[in-house]
Amino acid sequence: MTVAGERELPLALTMGEPAGIGGEIALMAWARRADRIPPFFAIDDPARLRALARRTGIAAAIEPIAAPEDAPSIFPRALPVLAEPIAVEVAPGRPDAAAAPAVLGAIDRAVALALAGRVAAVVTNPIHKAALYAAGFRHPGHTEYLADKAGLRHPSVMMLVSADLRVVPVTIHVSLREAIAGLTADAIVHCGRIAAAALATDFAVARPRLAVAGLNPHAGEDGHMGREDIDIVRPAIERLRAAGIAATGPHPPDTMFSASARKTYDAALCMYHDQALIPLKTLDFDGGVNVTLGLPFVRTSPDHGTAFDIAGTGRARPDSLIAALRLADVLARNRRAAQRGRDVA
Q1: Which domains, ranges and CATH numbers included, belong to the chain?
Q2: How confident is the model over 285-312, as pLDDT tens digits?
Q3: What confidence tens digit (pLDDT) does each residue in 103-146 have?
Q4: Which of 25, 51, 185, 326 maximizes the CB count within 10 A of its CB?
Q5: If DSSP codes are grouped into helix, strand and coil, which group holds residue 325?
Q6: Which residues pair with 40 in a beta bridge?
Q7: Interatomic CA distance for residues 208 and 186, integer angstroms
Q8: Overall pTM surpassing 0.90 (yes/no)
């Protein structure tokens, strides 16, 4: 629903790794446009998408656009595509570093459009970091690259969202040994502050409640299974509370994701990657969405990879991308409503 006088802004969807399933799930999502899919356009190579539609048998029309503003009127009859030509022909399942400039170009254009207020949000298809590294990419991943492009002075924060659970990993793509060694109260507090602010603004949660997981089994059991929960996690929770954030814990990680426990909080702060992602993917493997918190624009992404093994076969499922598109639309509308409230105040 658009407020009177407010023009409808489409979502920008980046191409992701062209050898992966990003293109076909974009086509599949558009083909299901009548199923509450918000208007979006792809930043991609139109010829590639046409060939992919023919290869997979997906009934999707492709129509190039000159500007994002053209997308909403075209979306009902065709997938709008803002052309980002790929210099090489990339075969499904066979990534080529020569396509990296187009992959990054699509992300850069989406970010620029978001910062200019010409799109409602950015939705990114999965990238293949090895192919980008071979082309000189120097960021750990999407999240860090987006934060750099947005000019952030602080690290952005990853949240994974499903219908039944929101989780925020404090440490992300590092080994478990590195995660434990690098865990600090400052990092927990930073993630907690960013998460609480995003819950209030983007998720429209009036008083966000954070449940903070312990690092060790049984949250350390009073120091008998390690002192990290006493020396690092608990002081971070006290600092969050002192800042006015409703934070509880450290909670034993093996009990805090039960159905009854999940009713007591709005997001779980987890100490390392798998502590966050295992419960979420167990609850909703196909519908999880990756959200980057702390950016000056809304960004979501499917919570899966490039799936080279099934790329180009038409067997991919668009569920997570569709969930990412729908959530991006909701978060963007909530953020605009919150901004209007601040402007009135």
Answers
A1: 1-156+306-345 (3.40.718.10), 164-283 (3.40.718.10)
A2: 888 999 999 999 999 999 899 999 999 9
A3: 999 999 999 999 999 999 999 999 998 888 887 888 877 888 88
A4: 25
A5: helix
A6: 11
A7: 20
A8: yes
